[in-house]
Amino acid sequence: MSASGCIFCRIANKEMDADIVYEDEEVVAFRDINPQAPTHVLVIPRKHFAGIKAAEAKDEAVMGHCLMVAREIAVRDGLAERGYRIVINSGAEAGESVPHLHVHVLGGRPLSWPPG
Ligand code: 5GP
Ligand code: ZN
């Protein structure tokens, strides 16, 4: 299922280029076009969700899979020992800018807390 005009659906469907680092039947992961850290990867479900707020109980498995893939990407990028951050922005005040659920994987530099 895809939403017409959604850039992340277009990336998942290979209608738009991205540096894809992992994909399977359920999810696609690709490097962020405007990286905020040496590793900045987005993990998205192939199914279009209008953000985490739109996820339903039946989506629990794919949501969990996104997190497991996010962890695997961090491991592959050599971040398991030094540390990394997994983030979902939801809504305007959190800076959500693309209305297709995406999990950020960030690492490769010290990450301050609390986030800005
Ligand atoms: P948000 O701000 O919604 O949490 O995150 C959206 C992210 O998508 C941003 O970090 C932004 O740089 C990234 N992004 C937006 N458009 C594209 C694109 O066309 N390709 C890729 N690879 N990343 C994108
Ligand atoms: Zn979409």
How many domains? The number is 1
CATH architectural arrangement? 2-Layer Sandwich
Shape: globular
Query: Could you give a short account of the major beta sheet?
Result: 5 strands, antiparallel
CATH class: Alpha Beta
Our count of helices gives 2
Q: How much of the polypeptide forms β-strand, as a percent range?
A: 15-25%
What would you report as the Rg, rounded to the nearest angstrom? 14 Å
The succession of helices and strands, N to C, reads: HEEEHEE
Helix content: 10-25%
- Uncertain segments: none
| C-alpha termini separation | 34 Å
CATH fold type: HIT family, subunit A
The structure class reads alpha+beta
CATH superfamily: HIT-like
Which ions, cofactors or small ligands are bound in this entry?
A: guanosine-5'-monophosphate, zinc ion
Which strand order does the major sheet show? 1-2-3-5-4
Mean pLDDT: 96
How many extended strands?
5
